[in-house]
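LacI family DNA-binding transcriptional regulator
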Amino acid sequence: MTNINDIAKIAGVSVSTVSRVLNNYKYVSEEKRNAVQKVINDLNYTPNKNAIDLIRGETNIIGVILPYNNNQAFDQMLQGILHRSVKMDFSVIVLPTKYDKKKELEYLAMLKNKLLDSIIITSKANAWDEILPFTTYGSIISCEYTDFKKIGCSYIDRYASYIDAFQTLKELGHSSVAFTTARGEESLSTQQTCQAYKEVFGELRPGTYISQCYCLEDGFQAAKRFFALNNKPSAIYANGDEVAGGIYQYAQSSGLKVPEDLAIIGQENQPVGVALGLATVDHHLMHVGEQAFELAIRKSRDKIKIPYNIIRRSSI
């Protein structure tokens, strides 16, 4: 089997020169580069990528840990990462976890084994204390805020956005407000939403929110459960525009007028929300992903805050 020693001997150059040509280093004379390339073509030589990566000490591969690959919010972050990766000629490996702690640690170990240059974590299952040791082996970037100095992050102030959404509904005259979340009380996002609700409305009564909402059908069923309560909501803040779309479907099927009988606000400015005229909190998640990728390839530990905005539409 042909190797770079054979190529060097036939081309009349050093092994290091062949290595530089294979790695596209600039500082090789045109004469030597052409001689090496001719031998490579004549022998139909295909370089071993793993060997080249070891020589360079880099793979040009970024891993992206995300819990689900069919979730609109995480898809938007991934879209931003892929958008930048194509421009920068990097490969991206998607690492879905379903919030499995063991699987997440297995992916992080890919840094230790030099299979990845960096890992971007869109959402995590493990505590940071479990993740931090892996920063010894490569760059780790978070898509949520962390004050650990070894972790760079591209993030939104989600708590402030939840406060603003609830405050918007309160200013519109709503006092009986319900909301939906994805995960349960173990989720930081759910904890922050509950705290923001308390700050704006006070007591968090039983039945005020429903978890495990991810899609249109979940939104429909959540609205059905909310309206089976004695204290029916006059407004619902959904954790995504697809969920908000399901709530809208329930309102239509039940003869409820939007926003007269029920105001609805979603998140992430998704196509279904645009089509139905749903108000939304746009966290600009594609931009979060783009900036996370930039941090990853620069191996930066910077903290980049991405602004959000509330888009008012006919549903409120």
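thats it. Residues 128 and 148 are 9 Å apart (CA to CA). The first strand starts at residue 61 and ends at 66. bye
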